[in-house]
Amino acid sequence: MKKTIPETEELLNLIEKNSKMVAMVAPSFLIDFYYPEFIGMLKRLGFKYVVEVAAGAVKTNRQLLALLKLHPHRKYITNPCPSIVRLIKNKYPQLSQFLTPIESPMIATAKIVAKKYPNYKKVYIGPCFVKKIEAKEEYPELDILVLTYKEIAEVFKIKNITPKKSYKSASFDIIASETGLYPISGGLAQSSNLTKKFTDQEYDVISGPKLAEKAIQEFVNKPELRLLDILFCEGGCINGAGINSKDSPDRRRQKIITYWSKK
After folding, report:
1. pLDDT tens across 14-23, in order?
2. What topology does CATH give the domain 6-262?
3. Mean pLDDT (whole number) for 96-123
4. How many Cβ atoms are within 10 Å of 244's Cβ, its own excluded?
5. CA-to-CA distance for 155 and 159, rounded, in angstroms?
6. For residue 42, how far is the Cα from the chain centroid?
């Protein structure tokens, strides 16, 4: 029998105990699942509420814009990607000062959930394994359990939960539309309207390990560059390691864009 990993076991234990739970779903979920069936499956699994992490991204954007307005002459590197944060802190610690001191969408969403649904266990479901480190090491007080799409799919399999027609009426309990493109490279810059507020020289959008490291190394030598919108995975979070899909990057991107445009 395949051994389950700790986070999967923890969720199964919570389900067994009929614990009060809120699922916080990253906006890239459409790459592996369908809406609204996925929401219905999560509620069938035992989640009382299901919220979009895109709602937290709205708060992230507001904090970023306020920061840029407060310090118009400072340079910043965006911090929503935990892999980028760790790369900088471990390999380029001298650049840590440039990381935006704001909440990532996951953390912002967790705080929204804590206020709206107190005493509920917060379970983040997304494409990234490194989010586990962010939750455990940087924000242990928020008590966030992090699972990837691969892991939640395994839980569905264990509990024998499959899509049903009755799930088509399911919906998010907290929803946001303006930040639905966040998992795509440049989603932050576009959803926060930085593409309209800044000149091409004042911001840059980068994704992928090689380009990301190169951009980090060159960051301080570009005085005109104010903001580096950067994600570690190629094309953005749509290519996270916690995704099962075998779709091409273009197909993954299109799924996100189609869902966002309908909203």
Report:
1. 999 999 999 9
2. Rossmann fold (3.40.50)
3. 98
4. 15
5. 6
6. 18
Q: Which two tokens stand for residue 149?
A: 């799409």
Q: Give, for 193, the enclosing helix (H) or strand (E).
A: none
pLDDT in tens, 128-139: 999 999 999 999
**Domain residue spans of the chain:** 6-262
pTM above threshold 0.85:
yes
Percent of the chain with pLDDT over 70: 98
What is the identity of the amino acid at 37?
A: E
State the maximum Cα–Cα separation within the chain, in Å, rounded to a whole number: 57
**What are the DSSP calls for 113-182, one per residue?**
HHHHSTTPEEEEEES-STHHHIIIII-GGG-EEEEEHHHHHHHHHHTT----GGGGG---SB--STTTTT
The count of residues in the chain is 263
